[in-house]
Amino acid sequence: MDRSYQKSSNLLCLSVFYVVSLFAITFMMIHFIQYNSEKTAPKMNDVVVVAVQDEDPVKNPHPPYDYNSLLPCNLTKEIKNAKLNLKTVQRSFSKCVFPLITRFFGNPAGLLFNFSTVLSVCDDEEAIRDIEVREFALNSWIVLPKCKENNTLLTLGVAKDTNSDEWVKKSIPNLKMYGASGLIENSTVYENFQNFALGPGGDSMELEVMEDGILQNKTMPLKSFEEYMTELKLTKIDALWINPYYGKFSFWDYIERDGWLAKHNITICQMTIEVPKGHGNQWIEMIKSMETNSDFVFMRPTTTKTGGARAFFINYRDPQCTRKYLE
Ligand SMILES: *[C@@H]1O[C@H](CO)[C@@H](O)[C@H](O)[C@H]1NC(C)=O
Ligand SMILES: *[C@@H]1O[C@H](CO)[C@@H](O)[C@H](O)[C@H]1NC(C)=O
Ligand SMILES: *[C@@H]1O[C@H](CO)[C@@H](O)[C@H](O)[C@H]1NC(C)=O
Ligand SMILES: *[C@@H]1O[C@H](CO)[C@@H](O)[C@H](O)[C@H]1NC(C)=O
Ligand SMILES: *[C@@H]1O[C@H](CO)[C@@H](O)[C@H](O)[C@H]1NC(C)=O
Ligand SMILES: *[C@@H]1O[C@H](CO)[C@@H](O)[C@H](O)[C@H]1NC(C)=O
């Protein structure tokens, strides 16, 4: 009697569990599709950089910036009164960020949700607060060059609206703009533009995408990050913008101090990275590894309107980068 009661209650529990899971899965799928609204909704775990939000109007809160009045960058020239102590930048960052963030390591959703409120204080730390980060559009940041040199921007996941990208182009007249996107087919702002989705490799991938409110299968050209970088042949990227990306694919594996980019002598001076909601685990893995394996510190920790996380990263270690942006 008791036993069969237990059995049927187990069964009940199990069915409730299934029903709840089904709801959860359905909800997640709907969310995923809606997040991109009219755009692509990658189902695959390993497809990346397709989605992008349109940005708010450009603003320019800082004093006018005149690129043409700068002197050429000269690494051999000694700096007498460096504006920033780079060791302090790193120390301030570590001292502030890691103690605050460890309690979220088992709680990725909580980390994304609280990312901005918990970590914003670190922007006021010694040396960090002296870095001249400009917000040129909503949640878009840049440190402008302090000396003249070739300038390169690479955007993974170019948005439909590129007004703010244009502002950067105007501020840095010799900026070479490289970009890729699975969402738009061409760009008038990016002189070197390619239409593909970043993924694990292969020629193309079938994706279920929402187009004009109808779910349909679409073949999307696909390229791996290694392939793309090898093709571009860049050795220095002044700014890398990574718009929301999906899946298990982790950019940080490429960007960390001993990662793929470093092994291929590709230096990045500054980055803006965003992960969408639900990808807190990747964000945590990235931040954890920054304690020991990173040339970057981040600022402007932001929880986005759609529940993702975004931040601005700057290289405090590469002499060419620090000369140009920090010292
Ligand atoms: C760079 O600075 C060094 C030392 O001041 C100077 O000798 C050299 O001419 C400079 N190079 C350029 C290209 O200005
Ligand atoms: C973090 O976010 C969660 C919601 O995901 C909230 O319930 C929690 O109170 C927050 N924790 C802290 C320490 O702010
Ligand atoms: C800078 O760009 C110009 C024009 O593209 C090129 O000729 C030159 O070699 C570049 N200089 C360096 C140091 O990469
Ligand atoms: C993309 O746009 C550029 C500049 O507007 C134009 O020169 C080029 O022909 C276009 N490419 C394609 C494939 O439409
Ligand atoms: C897309 O293709 C898959 C596999 O071929 C199929 O199961 C699915 O129903 C298709 N979706 C649509 C919306 O046609
Ligand atoms: C990277 O640079 C180092 C030192 O300049 C050189 O020894 C190495 O061969 C380079 N590696 C690649 C993959 O170009």
From TrEMBL:
Alphabetical keyword list: Membrane, Transmembrane, Transmembrane helix
Name this protein carries in UniProt: Uncharacterized protein
Keyword Transmembrane helix recorded: yes
Entry-linked PANTHER family: DUF3485 DOMAIN-CONTAINING PROTEIN (PTHR22989:SF8), UNCHARACTERIZED DUF13 C.ELEGANS (PTHR22989)
Transmembrane segments: 12-33
Lineage: Eukaryota, Metazoa, Ecdysozoa, Nematoda, Chromadorea
Keyword flag Membrane: yes
Organism this protein belongs to: Caenorhabditis remanei (Caenorhabditis vulgaris)
Highest taxon above the source species: Eukaryota
